[in-house]
Design a protein that fits this description.
Number of helices: 11
Distance between the termini: 39 Å
CATH topology of the largest domain: Butyryl-CoA Dehydrogenase, subunit A, domain 3
Order of helices and strands: HHHHHHEEEEEEEHEEHHHH
CATH superfamily of the largest domain: Butyryl-CoA Dehydrogenase, subunit A, domain 3
Family: Belongs to the acyl-CoA dehydrogenase family.
CATH class of the largest domain: Mainly Alpha
Strand content: 5-15%
Subunit structure: Homodimer.
Number of domains: 3
Structural class: alpha+beta
Shape: globular
Organism: Ciceribacter naphthalenivorans
Oligomer: single chain
GO biological process, one term: fatty acid beta-oxidation using acyl-CoA dehydrogenase
Strand order of the largest sheet: 2-3-7-6
Keywords: FAD, Flavoprotein, Oxidoreductase
Length: 413
């Protein structure tokens, strides 16, 4: 693996870093103030609209898509450092039209969508004129195992009829959310991984009801939010099924590879932001006649944070490189490894930053509480740590068994 970034990646890194320093970070306070004191909490602060227009004009738009037809055509390895840069600010991903779940939903439409679906939904998502949500997780089953899904998406003539309840549908509270991707059971008797379908659902479709917005550690994450949504006899045309009935599980697996790279690199960016704040506080805050950096084991805390961030970054860049060179299947273990490592590192570093800020760390003044909540949630989102560890172990045992000629099928109880 060549650890050097390509000339194209370096150009985007320089431009994106300059944009962040000149426009994004200075706008964070105004954005938050407007969001909290506007006419309603679920609003889009004007500064967001202004920054999105500026980013698009400067060619810093849809950076995540490798297809040159829709964006700059960056590889996963080229986009990874850009995702890290945007991860330093909670408002940055939307500014560059690179925020989840829209990124994953756009990737699905690019890879699996019909011409009609791309025209109607992909184009406005690429333009940033609408937002979307992904409705997969359910409250009554362990959704880390997608085969547990109880919500249904049944074919009725030329219509799909949807029923069920979803939750943690991120982005559904955004005022511009217009599209939902619903995953449900279509053929209960079919092959295990060919029973589900993904369906495009306009949010205003009769029978779709947002039951409540779910807080994370007491915060609703406005203006995006995480909703619990009920679907009661929701009817949409059969043409709204993505790639055809029964392909939902395949699409879900294809959706997660690039998204996990994006999530992990943004988590590393959040770690860097937290470490920067930690060091600034440690150097300027005096206690017992000394800077905090000189007290107790704080030097070890700082050193361990730097080591952990570097390790997480290198592993994530390796996973991105493998995706580009051997594909998602060849990078499955590394993708799961980074999903375990990067959020855990972020949580640890952010927690250390909170600790060194004392009382200031647990209020909202420094933004550390929001970063901590983000990192903690990420250890569950897109598969909990335990599921990824199980896959890593399975692949490792399979590889080790093959080396010594053990038939692993005979070892199963």
């Amino acid at each position: 693996m060549d650890f050097a970034f390509s000339p194209r990646a370096k150009d985007y890194i320089e431009r994106l870093t300059a944009f962040m320093e000149e426009h994004v970070h200075p706008a964070e306070a105004e954005y938050t103030r407007t969001l909290k004191t506007g006419e309603r909490p679920w609003n889009v602060p004007p500064v967001m609209t202004e920054l999105k227009a500026r980013a698009r004009a400067e060619g810093l738009w849809n950076l995540f898509l490798p297809e040159s037809e829709y964006g700059p055509g960056l590889s996963n390895a080229e986009y990874a450092p850009l995702a890290e840069i945007t991860g330093r600010s909670p408002i940055a991903p939307e500014i560059f039209n690179c925020n989840a779940p829209d990124t994953g939903n756009m990737e699905v439409l690019v890879k699996y969508g019909s011409p009609m679906q791309r025209e109607r939904w992909l184009k406005p998502l690429l333009d940033g004129s609408i937002r979307s949500a992904f409705c997969m997780t359910e409250p009554d089953v362990a959704s880390s195992d997608a085969t547990n899904m109880q919500a249904t998406a049944m074919v009725k003539g030329d219509r799909m009829v949807l029923n069920g309840r979803k939750w943690w549908s991120t982005g559904i509270g955004h005022p511009d959310c217009r599209l939902l991707i619903f995953m449900g059971l279509t053929d209960p008797e079919g092959p295990k991984h060919a029973r589900h379908s993904m369906v495009l659902v306009p949010i205003e479709t009769p029978g779709v009801r947002i039951e409540r917005m779910l807080p994370v550690f007491g915060a609703l994450d406005e203006p995006y939010g995480h909703g619990e949504v009920s679907f009661t006899d929701v009817e949409v045309p059969l043409e709204n099924v993505i790639a055809g009935p029964g392909r939902g599980f395949e699409i879900a697996q294809g959706r997660l590879g690039p998204g996990r790279i994006h999530h992990c690199m943004r988590a590393i960016g959040a770690s860097e932001r937290a470490l920067e704040l930690l060091c600034r506080r440690a150097l300027t805050r005096i206690a017992f006649g000394q800077p905090l950096a000189s007290l107790g084991g704080n030097v070890d805390v700082i050193a361990n944070a730097r080591i952990a961030i570097e390790q997480a970054r290198l592993l994530t860049l390796k996973a991105a490189w493998l995706m580009d060179t051997v594909g998602v299947k060849g990078a499955m273990s590394e993708i799961s490894q980074i999903k375990v490592v990067a959020p855990s590192v972020a949580q640890s570093v952010i927690d250390a930053a909170i600790q060194i800020h004392g009382g200031a760390g647990v209020c909202d003044d420094w933004g550390l509480t929001a970063l901590y909540a983000y990192a903690r949630v990420l250890r569950i989102a897109d598969g909990p740590d335990e599921v990824h560890r199980a896959l890593i172990a399975k692949l490792e045992l399979k590889a080790q068994a093959a080396r010594v000629g053990i038939d692993i099928r005979k070892t199963r109880g």
